[in-house]
Amino acid sequence: MKLLHKDIEKDNAGQVTLMPEEAEDMWHTYNLLQVGDSLRASTIRKVQTESQTGSVGSSRVRTTLTLCVETIDFDSQACQLRVKGTNIEENQYVKMGAYHTIELELNRKFTLAKKSWDSIVLERIEQACDATQKADVAAVVMQEGLANLVLVTPAMTLLRAKVEVTIPRKRRGSCTQHEKALERFYEAVMQAILRHINFDVVKCILIASPGFVRDQFMTYLFKEAVRQDNKILLENRPKFMLVHSSSGHKYSLKEILSDPSVTSRLSDTKAAGEVRALEDFYKMLQHEPDRAFYGLAHVERAADALAIDTLLISDKLFRHQDVPTRSRYVRLVDNVRDNGGNVRTDSAERGGCYFAVSHR
User: Fold this and answer.
1) Quick one: which of 307, 301, 315 has its CA closest to 346?
2) For residues 157 and 347, what is the distance between their CA atoms, to the nearest angstrom?
3) Which of 3, 159, 181, 246 is 20–30 Å from 120 (CA)?
């Protein structure tokens, strides 16, 4: 994400102009938007025209509209963001008060105006624009015929490719069809890795599967790398790590990141921080329950007593459309930070908890 302009007054009202540069930036934008905000962006509008002869035609024109946001729709798989609202500025193609839906696009700037920019939203902008806050962990979760390639960022888990190939069963006396299908499957997964993983940024690539699928794939991957003299794969071989998973579906990623061997390997990556903090909370809840609290009321009492060391909170709470409720969560976070506590905001995409606190 690129910050092009920022104009926020002392009363916290104002606007920012941003340009999303990659798919994850749409997730950040989704977390910035709230009902009642003002969004100005380039969009396509279908316009009807009437000629001098009376015939009516239609054409699609690109124009810039300013909407009062009413509905926000985010597709987490495709990373597409659509915002519906009413037009609040005069436009030659769209009347005042008319409804329109803007689909925000990569590398096209937009301006977002709010009556009040709170600390959580401003922190989200800083995180989105920080070049170091990128995906430094990739994972291929696979089983025979199915593979999900995901990038794990500090903000979310991003599905970049899904590979599905029908694998025939082995037949007595002949395994040819089975082996050919497996080879096609492994080749498709290999191409997905080369296409979607930036080896300059990613520090670790987890290959996870039940059984021996991961071992067979790794053998194929580097056999092909040697045959094709693929220097990218050969130079980055130490980054690959084989891990057990119960299935090849995306939901298995949570169990993979909780594996102790993976946790130690990912100790210097950003994604491991949230996993470690949650594990520490569960251990404390089990062994020292008097020092661990969850639930909004209990957590707020602990914050008022200046007793919070670490607060874990899901970013889903900050998308609450009820302003007083959202403000309550923001006050809690500000209170913990002002009194020297640590705050970790985890993504609901990764199953982030609502409230979990380590008590000092």
Assistant:
1) 315
2) 8
3) 159
Give phi and psi for 129, each to the nearest 5.
-90, -5
pLDDT greater than 80 at residue 348 = no
Q: Which of 258, 294, 1 is nearest to 139 (CA)?
A: 258
Under 8 Å between Cβ of 330 and 123: no
CB atoms < 10 A from the CB of 78, how many?
A: 10
Residues in CB range of 119: below 8 A, 6 or more apart: 330, 333, 334
> For 171, which DSSP code?
B
H or E element in which residue 217 lies:
helix 213-228
User: Do 253 and 152 form a contact (C-beta atoms < 8 A)?
Assistant: yes
Instruction: Let me know: does 247 contact 211? Beta carbons within 8 Å.
Output: no
Check if the beta carbon of residue 245 is closer than 8 Å to that of residue 256: yes
User: pTM to 2 decimals?
Assistant: 0.65
Residues 6+ apart with CB under 8 A from 274: 154, 312, 344, 346, 350, 352
Q: Which one, of 119, 97, 105, lies nearest residue 329 by Cα?
A: 119
Residue-wise pLDDT tens digits, 260-277: 888 777 765 555 666 677
CA atoms within 13 A on the CB side of 274: 24
